[in-house]
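This is your field. Please look over both lines of this record.
***
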Amino acid sequence: MICSTLLRRIIPSFGVGVCFLLAVLASGQNIPSHPVSANEDSAKPPAIVIGFLGGFIAHDNPIHSEVQLAARLRTAYPAGVDVETFENHHGEIAQREILKLLDANHDGTVTAEEKQNAQIIIYGHSWGASESIYLARTLEKNGIPVLLTLQVDTISRRGGDDTTIPANVAQAANFYQSNGLLRGHHDIRAADAARTRIIGNFRFDYETSPLKCTGYPWYGQIFMKPHIQIECDPAVWNQVESLIRAALPPAARSQAAR
C-alpha cells in the first residue's frame, strides 16, 4: 500500500504496475511468459531413414552394407534424424514406426499437418529394395510424402510393381548389375514425372573387376556372386550415402557438421 501510494505520486501512470512487479519478485514467484502457440508447443518430428535388408538377413547383421550405412548415419546425425533397419518382410512394422515418429505431439493420431512435415528416406538391397517401393506406395495411400528412395539390385519379393516409383516420392535412384542368377531391375520410372525426379539408373559390372565380400555365406558368393558383390561394393554405398545426406533437411546437416 505504501509503495502504491508513493509511486502513484511520483509516476502516476506506472505506480501500480511497478508495485505488482516488486511484489512478485519479493515473493519469489515466476513471472508468466507470453502464451505459447500450438505450433511452438508441438515438437517437430525427426527426419526418418529406413533401410531394408535383403534375403532372410537379420535387421542388425553388421556384415551387411545396409546395417553399416545405418550405423554411420546414426553417428553422423546424433540428433534430428532417426535411422532404423528392418527385415524386408517387416514393412508393416516399419510403417508403424514411421507413424509413431510422425505423431509429434504423441496424441495417437497423425494429423494432415504432421504428415506433410514428414521427411522420409527409404533404401534397400534385393528384396529389401523391392520392399522400399512397397512401403513408399503404402505411405502414398496415407497421404505421406517421401523425400528419396534408393534401390540396390532390386529383386521382386511379392511379385508386385517395384519399378514404378509412386508420385509421393520426390526423388529416386536405382543401382543394379546384370550378371548371374539374380539380376536387379535395370530401369525405374516415375508414375508422375512432374512430381518425381529419377536421379538415374546406375549399372555396375563385376565381371572384369570382381570384389571379395568377406563374411558373406559361401553359398551366396557361389550362386549369387554378382548380386552379393553389389551389396558389398563400397562405391555403390558411398553413392547411396551421399544421396541420403544431400536429401536430409538443412537442420540435420548443420547438426552433423558440429
About this structure: The longest strand covers residues 169-176. Strands lie at 47-52, 81-86, 120-125, 146-152, 164-165, 169-176, 189-190, 197-203. The chain has eleven helices and eight strands. The mean pLDDT is 86.
